[in-house]
Amino acid sequence: MSVRLPRIVDDVLSRPTWPGTLPRPLERRNLGVDYDTAWTREPWARFLRRAFVDNVTRPFVTALTSPRVFGREHLDPLEGPVIFAANHSSHLDTSIVVSCLPDRFRRRTVVAAAADYFFDRPWKAALWSLALGTIPMERNKVSRQSADLAASLLTDGWNLVIFPEGGRSRDGWGQEFRGGAAYLAKRCNAPVVPIHLRGVRPVFPKGGRALRRGKVEVRFGNPLRPGDAAAQADREEDARHFAARIEESVALLADEAESDWWSARKRAATGRTPPFRGPAASSWRRAWALPSSARRTSSARSKSSAKPW
Amino acid sequence: MSPRPGFVLEVDRSTPPTLFWHGEGFRFERLPEGARVVYPPEPLDGLVDPDASIRHALEHPLGDSQPLSSLLKPGMRLTIAFDDVSLPLPPMRRPDIRQRIIEIVLDAAAAAGVDDVVLIAALAIHRRMTDDELRHALGDRVFDAFAPSGLLLQHDAEDPGALVHLGLTEKGEDVEINRRASESDLLIYVNINLSAMDGGHKSVATGLASYRSLRHHHNVRTLQQSRSLMDRHNSEMHSSNWRMGRFIKDAGVKIFQIESTLNLDMFPSQFAFLQKREWEWSLLDRAAFHASRLSLDRTPPRLARQIFQSMLSPYAPTSVQAGEVEAVHDVTLENLHRQQLVAVEGQTDILTMGLPYLCPYNVNSIMNPILVACLGLGYFFNLYRGKPLVREGGVCIISHPTPWAFHPVHHPSYIDFFEQVLAETTDLIEIEKNYEHAFATDPWYIHLYRTSYAYHGVHPFYMWYWCAHALEHLGAVIIVGGDRAAVRRMGFKPASTLADALEMAEDVVGRNPTITHLHAPPLLVADVT
């Protein structure tokens, strides 16, 4: 039995509709790119996060993916804020990167996360920003607000984990690197450490419903600084070119992961590094060409989804 | 956040119902898709220190006027005239801007050693103000200092001894004004310029004039050629006043004009929804609106009237300027337009408007049918600059209960005008020709005007003439929710609902008409291009 409120009560409680002929002013709500994450960098929140990462995230990642880390020595000479730029194919990427960072970086790291995905509900925004130190990043358009927040944190000495592809890969191949990481590096004069994650997609791909144990490899590349290439080319390097250079570095790490360091270096020297974004071909040919480390085979699907009925 | 300007909304399916004033109540009407609603601007911020602004204006006059302090001399005759109870609407919370200005003027006069000071309420042929109304407008300090000793006067347009005929303008218009004002060494006029119609030379040439003088600009021909009353450069009524004003100046009357403008903060906080756009109403606004509407529907008209008439506005002054009349008025108009002007593109077939409980002539009184017509067709229709909001031959739909009710003390001649004259004819020219003189010179009406609180015998005629431009321009006038007999008496068509009225209007303007709603008050002036 439905209960109808008296009309007058309904009239008072119902918000008036907005005329469709008028632009609706943006409501400044504490969500999305407006979400204020300052509280998650308070000492008490950092203590909780550290306890959570050390006692929940890292054991979970280790148990699920048994990560092998290569090139961590590249981080040794680095001091001050660093931008970690990784390829992105799974929700697990953040947890894996954070878990694999040396302790001195991990204690003071924030993660750029999609404002429209991780900050669209109050509970999600609070959970992820507390658990992983995420900050909202506008990925659909250029946002001064996102950039200013990230830049101010870098200036304050925080390290930043960012996925320059702007979202998880749909088919396992890489996507074009956007300019955010490069822009921030130039603006704050911070080094960018390229990271390649291999084997995460089979564990938990985009659209996947179940976790699957797997073997993950994490490769840290040589730190890149804006202007390194420019010095060689005797010209100023803009953010777009620097972003392309970061992408090339991740592609080199991917090649190294699929072959060996020496072969990858030789191919890089001759400009024959396999394309990071895969072949420019139809979807089935792209799927055909995907390395096995990025494939989630049918046997890896959950039993329920494998049922024919 | 700075106040938002007025704008024109195009109604669509998701537009919430629109608030219509309906006398001492409201209607909530859903306008057809495609209709336009002209919304007034939000109130501008008031002056930070009104008293300092007034002092500054008095000592830095506009035009060829000298500062007030240098005009005040011991032994001089000083007269201070001020606008009557018809301004502002609704009455302003204390302190009224007239009180602020007059107190500062009197401080300057006292400092200069001026003894002969008289205050005059510039009534023209309006009813006299009660002591309470004078006290409210002028404040206790001024009232108690001047009223007991007979120095607070009310202009009497029928006292031959208190009037002086200064002569005729080049167009043969009699200029007859208050003798005391005319023979003073300095006449200071304190205005409240609520609309662009107020102020300028109209202050003295109308406010302190006699019937003999007023009839030259308050007549059918002049008002038909006043397009609009809010645009003085295209208003024959203002042109006549300007001629008279310049004649008065040339006759040697020294006038120091003080004009003030107010923002559009017209309603107290419990009626805040009246100043908001419907889709921005908060929970509190919605509760206040529905509670008001429900309770007013069940309140006897007399009590509802008392509730509304006791409402005082939290107006804030936005500017004060003083000096030579025309220079002052030009600046005043700029300040008024800054607050009230709304750009509107194109005319409409049907203009709708909801009329409130108040017009300039029923403060603490009853809004009788003639005043409903005057407010709708005389004032609201004229809230334009450029072209009328409604096209020639279009229809005006007015929402108001239009009760067949009159205040017997304030409006005695209105009763006879409605019962006798309008029962015979509604034709403006015929009324002016056959009936005006008899009412204007009727000794009983004159007696009531001079000794009681009655409007002059000719006043209902002027209210009817005020509709002259609209009646000539429009194809039909429909009143929604009005007393049918009263509406028909005035030659208009009654309708029960807005939907009915729109159907009826289509018979005049054709199928699929364009509709524009004037969302006032708060007051606005449509700049129609």
Description:
- The complex is a heterodimer of chains A (309) and B (529).
- Helices cover 40% and strands 10% of the residues of chain A.
- With 309 residues, chain A is α/β, with parallel strands linked by helices.
- Chain A has a single domain, classed as Glycerol-3-phosphate (1)-acyltransferase.
- Chain A is globular.
- The model of chain A is unreliable at 299-309 (pLDDT under 50).
- In chain B, α3 (97-112) runs parallel beside α4.
- The model of chain B has no long low-confidence stretch (mean pLDDT 96).
- At the A-B interface, α1 of A face α10 of B.
Spatial strand order of the main sheet of chain B: 1-4-19-14-16-17-18
CATH domain class name of chain A: Alpha Beta
- In the CATH scheme, the class of the largest domain in chain B would be Alpha Beta
How many distinct beta strands of chain B? 20
Mean pLDDT of chain A: 85
The pLDDT mean of chain B sits at: 96
Biggest sheet: strand arrangement of chain A: 1-7-6-2-5-3-4
The structural class of chain B is alpha/beta
| Largest interface by Cβ-Cβ < 8 Å | A-B, 11 and 17 residues
Radius of gyration of chain A from CA coordinates: 22 Å
Oligomer: heterodimer
What does this entry show, briefly?
The complex is a heterodimer of chains A (309) and B (529). Chain A is of the alpha/beta class and 309 residues long.
